[in-house]
Structures are given as structure tokens and as C-alpha cells.
């Protein structure tokens, strides 16, 4: 079996990809390869994400996005692996890590593919609330494909390799919800990512409110007319 196959086989040849990862000796070497691609793609997406508010914010966000992904995994992965082991999984640590990382290869690749769309809206619009919602939507959309990929990998290990218990699929679905909560809370503590042009640059913001309230507020602000727009409308209506 060739060991230099691209990580991007997961997009169209998932069975061949997961068959490759089932090789214990190869899976150990493949962890680093996947990590490097995820680091690169999330760094590039972060650069684009933060460029709305200048070079410094762009550089900082480029570092924050990979940190967000890997810190979330570092916090949540041990619990998943220990529980899977307790219910009878015979997957090695590297095999389990590779299956999870394969989802993040998909996540980071899809997210980065949206970079031109993000740049387009940054050029043609200066609506900060819209851009924040856009990034949340891109992360959510990419995340759905990431989960689908991981489930495919675990199903392959369960049905074709018989090294993963069926009960583990249900536990993974619970785990992914926990992971989403951890990642969103961590993202809230690492903010700003986009950075408002109306505020001075800050490495981190004061801890207040929470991620979900902020998203709702951004949606409300998106559909609320700007005060200046209202003033302009009133001036146009004033008799000359």
C-alpha cells in the first residue's frame, strides 16, 4: 500500500481512504500529515477572516483559528477515546485520531474554499454584523460535512473492519454536540476574530454575555436600520 496518498482522497474515495487509515503502522505517520494541512488551511482562512480589520487583526486571527480547532480537540478528544475504549472499541489512538482529523480536513478545506466569497463581501460591504453571521454560517456548513465524514469513517471501522462497536456511533453523536458547545465557548473567549473597525485593536475582549446571545444580537442588528440611515431618511422627508 502506498503511503504517500493525498489526504484529499477522503472527498471522493472515502472507503479507500479509511482502509488506508486502518493500517496501524501507516496511521501513526498520517496523523502529522493531516495536522499540517489543517493548520495551514485554518491559518489561511483566519488571515482572510481578520483582514476586515487590518493587517494586525488578520495575523492574530490567522493564529487564533487553528488554536480554536486544536484546543477544542485537545479538550474533548480524551473523553471520546476513553469512552470508546470502555465500550469495546479496538481502534488504536492513532486510528481514532486520524478518523476525527479526517473530518477536520474536510472542514478546513471547505471553509477555505469560501474565502473568495468572504473577500467579495468585505470589498462590497462594510456590515460588521453580516460578516460575523457569514463566518458562523460557513463554520456551521463546513462542520456538517466534517461530521458526515467522521461518521463515515466510524461506520467503516464498525461494519467493514469490526474494530468499532455500534454503540459508539450513538456516543459519538452526543460527543459532537458537546464538542460544538466547547468550541463555541472557546471561540467566545478567544474573540475578536473579525474585529470591529469602530473599536481599537484588542488581542482578547472582556468576558461578557455568551456566543449564542452575540449571534442573536448580530442577526437583530443586521435587520435593524442604522441610525444614520434613519436620519438620512428623515432629512429627505423634511420639506425644503
Outline the secondary-structure elements.
Blueprint: H1 9-12, H2 14-21, H3 24-50, H4 55-86, H5 93-113, H6 115-124, H7 128-159, H8 167-190, H9 211-222, H10 227-237
Helix pairs in contact: 2-7, 3-4, 3-5, 4-8, 5-7, 7-8, 7-9
Structure overview:
The chain is mainly α. The protein has one domain (9-197). Helices cover 75% and strands 0% of the residues. It contains ten helices and no strands. It has helices at residues 9-12, 14-21, 24-50, 55-86, 93-113, 115-124, 128-159, 167-190, 211-222, 227-237. α2 packs across α7, α3 packs parallel to α5 (93-113) and α7 (128-159) packs across α9 (211-222). The protein is elongated, with a radius of gyration of 21 Å. The model is unreliable at 1-5 and 228-240 (pLDDT under 50).
Task: State the main characteristics.
single chain, 240 residues, mainly alpha, 10 helices, elongated, disordered N terminus, disordered C terminus
Give the number of DSSP strands: 0
Number of domains: 1
Briefly note the structural class of the backbone: mainly alpha
Distance between the termini: 81 Å
SS strand fraction: under 5%
Query: Number of helix segments?
Result: 10
Cα shape: elongated
Amino acid at each position: 500500500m502506498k503511503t504517500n496518498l493525498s489526504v484529499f482522497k477522503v472527498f471522493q474515495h472515502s472507503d479507500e481512504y479509511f482502509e488506508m487509515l486502518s493500517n496501524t503502522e501507516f496511521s501513526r505517520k498520517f496523523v502529522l500529515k493531516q495536522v499540517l494541512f489543517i493548520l495551514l488551511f485554518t491559518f489561511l482562512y483566519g488571515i482572510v477572516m481578520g483582514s476586515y480589520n487590518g493587517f494586525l487583526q488578520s495575523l492574530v486571527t490567522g493564529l487564533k483559528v487553528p488554536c480554536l480547532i486544536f484546543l477544542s480537540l485537545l479538550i474533548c478528544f480524551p473523553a471520546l477515546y476513553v469512552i470508546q475504549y470502555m465500550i469495546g472499541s479496538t481502534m488504536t489512538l492513532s486510528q481514532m485520531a486520524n478518523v476525527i482529523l479526517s473530518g477536520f480536513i474536510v472542514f478546513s478545506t471547505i471553509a477555505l474554499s469560501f474565502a473568495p466569497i468572504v473577500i467579495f463581501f468585505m470589498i462590497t460591504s462594510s456590515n460588521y454584523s453580516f460578516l460575523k453571521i457569514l463566518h458562523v454560517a460557513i463554520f456551521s456548513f463546513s462542520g456538517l460535512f466534517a461530521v458526515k465524514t467522521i461518521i463515515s469513517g466510524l461506520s467503516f471501522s464498525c461494519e467493514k473492519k469490526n474494530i468499532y462497536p455500534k454503540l459508539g456511533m450513538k456516543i459519538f453523536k452526543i460527543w459532537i454536540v458537546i464538542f460544538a458547545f466547547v468550541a463555541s465557548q472557546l471561540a467566545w473567549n478567544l474573540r475578536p476574530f473579525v474585529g470591529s473597525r469602530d473599536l481599537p485593536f484588542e488581542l482578547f475582549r472582556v468576558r461578557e454575555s455568551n456566543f449564542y446571545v452575540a449571534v442573536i444580537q448580530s442577526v437583530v442588528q443586521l435587520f435593524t436600520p442604522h441610525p444614520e440611515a434613519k436620519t438620512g431618511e428623515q432629512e429627505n422627508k423634511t420639506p425644503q
